[in-house]
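Supplementary Methods, section 5.1.

A reviewer requested that the exact input to the structure prediction be made available. We therefore reproduce it here, unchanged from the version used in the analyses.
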Amino acid sequence: MSVPSQSNAARRRALAGRLKTAYEAGETTYSLAAEHGMPVNTVWRLLKATDTTMRPTGPKPYRNGH
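The structure derived from this sequence is encoded token-by-token as follows.
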């Protein structure tokens, strides 16, 4: 197993930061995965690496009148 280069590690951190910003703005892990061409598990792992508070999975709860 090889050690990632500094530039590769820096790009991954930058991507993780962009994913976190989008996720916290309401994007889903599925939409982020599709947008960035990566598996959902990779998105989830990158978000967790940035200490992102993950939302519950599944559909958004239905609220009466909204």
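Residues 6-24 form the longest helix (19 residues). These observations are discussed further in the main text.
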